[in-house]
Structure formats: C-alpha cells, structure tokens
Specification:
single chain, 326 residues, mainly alpha, 15 helices, globular
Length: 326
Amino acid sequence: MIGFVVRRLWQSLLVIFGVTLVTFLSMHMGGDPTYLYVNEHASDAQIAATRAALGFDKPLPVQYLHYAVRLLHGDMGTSLTYRTPALDVVLRHFPATLELAMFALIVALVFAIPLGVLAAMKRGTPLDGGIMIFAMFGQSIPSFWLGIMMILAVGLGLRWLPISGRVPVLDEIFAGNIAEGLANIPRAIPYLIMPGMTIAFFTLARTTRLVRASMLEVLSLDYVRTARSKGLNELRVVGYHAMRNAMLPVITMLGLEMGFLLSGVVVVETIFSWPGVGRLVYNAINHRDIPLVQAAVILFAVTFLALNLAVDLLYAQLDPRIRLNG
C-alpha cells in the first residue's frame, strides 16, 4: 500500500509541475506581463523599473524557477483587482464553490443510482427506455441553457425559489463555527437547488448510464445466478451481492465527477450570481487579473488531484488487485 501511495503522489507531483508550467507560460503568451502591473499613462522609465522589480527582465527559465520557489512558499502573486494575495482571495471564495459542487454531487448520486439500478433490472422495458431517454437528454442539453430556463420558469415565473444569493454553510464550519454552519443548512438549501440541479444534471445522466451498464454486467455473472438459485429474494441479490461490485466503477468516477463539478461552475456561478471561485475567475478574466486566474487554476488542480488520490486509495482498499497492478 505504501508503494501504491508513493507512486500516486509522484504522479500527482508531475501533474502539478505541468499545471504550474502551463499557467506560468499563459501569463507570457499575451506579451510582456509588466503592462498588467502599470497604468496606461506610465512612462518608459516607470515600465522598465517595474519590469526589473518584478523580475520580468530575466530569462524565462529563471523567471519560472523564481515562480516555482514562490509557489512552494504559498505565494501565488498579488491580485491586480483586490491588491491582496491572490491565494487569499481564491480561498475566501472556495467554500461557496465547494458547497455547490458537493450539493450537486449528492443530488446526482441520490437520483442516478436508483435510476441506473432500476433500468438494469427492467432491461428492455418501456421504463428502461424512458430512463435512457432521460439520461441522453441530460447529457445533451447545455448547462447555461438549463440554468436560464430554470431562472425563467421556477425563479421568475412560479417564484418558488430565489434566483440568486447564498446562505454560508462551509464558511462557518471552516471558521470553527460548526453549530452555526449546520444550523444554516435549512436556509441554504433553497438557494442551492437551482444552481446545484443545473450543475448536477449532466453528472446525474452520465452516472445513471454507468450504473445501468455496470449492473447489467454484474447481474450476468455466475455468482449472482448462484445466489438466485439458492432461493435468495431479488432485493437481497441486487442490493447486497450485485451492487457491491457494480458500484466499483462508480466510485472510481466520483473523483473525476467532483473535479468536473468544481471546474464546471464558471458558467453556472455567473448565471446565478453565486459568489464562488467560478464567478471570481470569470470576473478576473474580464479584468485581465492573471495572478488571480493562475491561483484559481492551481487550486482547482490540487483539489482535483487530492480527490483522485482519495478515490484511488478507496478503490485499492475495495479491490486489492489495484495495489498489485499500480
């Protein structure tokens, strides 16, 4: 197990190195980044002084080395918009994004697993066909269109749910106010439903199809037929014997889905004015706040890798062959 973890950590470090290199080069692809730090009326002397002060007059490999050293010390630069460390700004908005992604993942799993199992058990019936049509529909419609339709129909038309706003939950929990954070959950859910459902819809549809396919494969195996031949009722065969193995591919996909949900919030957060990292990145791009965008990208990458490592460890625990094969 230790060798497995070491290999995964080494692979994660290589990925982080690649992400830092790409984000660093992106800052220089648009030309001299010095102009991001000076006003439009700056003289040539002021521009040259700023370039030297920030180290942009040095060769690119040297600049990257300095950038990497600063990253190791937690310094991701200063936001051009907020005039404070970029990492601090991103971390202030991260609980809102994490809250939304977690809600979306829970919604997706709560609906996808029963639907997938039901479709597999009723294979070839109209119910199976209806669930598959729903799954294909969910994977086909763009999230921005779905979000706008929900705002128009549910928010503005029926006035059932608020179209913007947020009640903080994870912010309070991360600050140590656990009781207050948990107490906020009932008031937070109405604000989470529409953006959460908008993000969850694609994952729900994809997971439903995956669960159905996995269940169909497991239900055809010998040990399931043996369990049925012993006279066990169908609920025990499916719920205990089949689902344990059928859920392994779903567990593997959870890390990827959580990363997808975290990185896919830019459009949805903007539509619903959700105060998370996605909306922050959208505004940072509009204001050319490159350090802020870089900090958000690196934080997303590290979170994505951490989630995948956790899923790999869980999967290796459930299936020992993974530890042997790496």
